[in-house]
Amino acid sequence: MNAIVEPRRAQPTDSDAILNALPNPVLLIGPDGKIADANMAAESFFEISAQLLRRQSLTDLVPFGSPLLALIEQVRVGHSPVNEYKVDLGTPRIGADRQVDLHVAPLNERPGHIVVMLQERTIADKMDRQLTHRSAARSVIALAAMLAHEIKNPLSGIRGAAQLLEQQASAEDRMLTRLICDEADRIVTLVDRMEVFGDDRPVARGPVNIHSVLDHVKRLAQSGFARNIKFIEDYDPSLPPVLANQDQLIQVFLNLVKNAAEAVVDLGSDGEIQLTTAFRPGVRLSVPGKKTRVSLPLEFCVRDNGPGVPEDLLPNLFDPFVTTKPSGSGLGLALVAKIVGDHGGIIECESQPRKTTFRVLMPMFNTAKALQSPNGEDAPASSDASQTSR
């Protein structure tokens, strides 16, 4: 009786190694519409091993009527590459929102075969949002300067006149003069908050222990507005210091935690705020005034289990005067975005019911560079830099 001999698995070639080294998913589609080959990034994207992918048709993986199927047919007919941007390939299995850029091209060496490369929009959208936040901040700077000059001076005169009238007014009229004074003070406070956007003075930055910042913010919150809210901490203790100004970081995370506390206030004892830190290499950003691109490997998140941000507000959440609060000014998150942007970082928000996450990506403190340039532009901002370097 002849023994059944299992076919030996082919050794990976240099071409396979190159494809597997690519961070973007790549698929080879056969003439019958089935997947002939896939790299490791495609395995991760579709959450299926390459061996199982080769047994499936592309129509089994993408949504019904997906533009990707039409693009493949277009390439088969035209025999030329085609690109399509911001295509949603989300499915219940891999996630409902998976926007990608598609690059589809014929493989001339194998007639009828089509190469498909997917590029997720996550990083590109982060960059686009960051540029939008900076543009919005510049608009607020100009508006703040105009308001300071054109509104604060007349308001001082109105308030002074109301105080003079108050001295000779009846008890009923004094209520009105007091209302005038209070409203004038409220407008001045709003203008003062906006003037912060116009402060372009260089900020002293240095090594800051992010966990010290988050612990300080947590103590402030638990002693006041978040007294009855449960905090969950998930920290990476090996994180290197962040290159930042400690006071401004406290301002950023205090604002984010305050927003989270207000989002879960109706949940009572079920309200939770989660603070996380992690090392996420791979994100780089061009910073104004610097020729080199800055790496942003440090990720800090503030997450709550509130009802979430309305979908129509999400794209403009960091723009000035955008708010979901009845009495909010809409300047808190705009200021947060400005501070993070001034530090060369990125802030983004992902929201769904019971899970809203504000994610901040920041550069880390370069100890070697600081030793080489002790008189550099970034002065120490905190004496607490005891974190170990990764």
TrEMBL record:
<keyword id="KW-0067">ATP-binding</keyword>
<dbReference type="GO" id="GO:0006355">
    <property type="term" value="P:regulation of DNA-templated transcription"/>
</dbReference>
<keyword id="KW-0902">Two-component regulatory system</keyword>
<keyword id="KW-0547">Nucleotide-binding</keyword>
<protein>
    <recommendedName>
        <fullName>histidine kinase</fullName>
        <ecNumber>2.7.13.3</ecNumber>
    </recommendedName>
</protein>
<dbReference type="InterPro" id="IPR035965">
    <property type="entry name" value="PAS-like_dom_sf"/>
</dbReference>
<dbReference type="InterPro" id="IPR013767">
    <property type="entry name" value="PAS_fold"/>
</dbReference>
<feature type="region of interest" description="Disordered">
    <location>
        <begin position="369"/>
        <end position="390"/>
    </location>
</feature>
<dbReference type="Pfam" id="PF00512">
    <property type="entry name" value="HisKA"/>
</dbReference>
<feature type="domain" description="Histidine kinase">
    <location>
        <begin position="146"/>
        <end position="366"/>
    </location>
</feature>
<dbReference type="InterPro" id="IPR000014">
    <property type="entry name" value="PAS"/>
</dbReference>
<dbReference type="Pfam" id="PF00989">
    <property type="entry name" value="PAS"/>
</dbReference>
<dbReference type="InterPro" id="IPR003594">
    <property type="entry name" value="HATPase_dom"/>
</dbReference>
<dbReference type="Pfam" id="PF02518">
    <property type="entry name" value="HATPase_c"/>
</dbReference>
<dbReference type="GO" id="GO:0005524">
    <property type="term" value="F:ATP binding"/>
</dbReference>
<keyword id="KW-0808">Transferase</keyword>
<dbReference type="InterPro" id="IPR036890">
    <property type="entry name" value="HATPase_C_sf"/>
</dbReference>
<dbReference type="GO" id="GO:0000155">
    <property type="term" value="F:phosphorelay sensor kinase activity"/>
</dbReference>
<dbReference type="InterPro" id="IPR004358">
    <property type="entry name" value="Sig_transdc_His_kin-like_C"/>
</dbReference>
<keyword id="KW-0597">Phosphoprotein</keyword>
<dbReference type="InterPro" id="IPR005467">
    <property type="entry name" value="His_kinase_dom"/>
</dbReference>
<dbReference type="InterPro" id="IPR003661">
    <property type="entry name" value="HisK_dim/P_dom"/>
</dbReference>
<keyword id="KW-0418">Kinase</keyword>
<dbReference type="InterPro" id="IPR036097">
    <property type="entry name" value="HisK_dim/P_sf"/>
</dbReference>
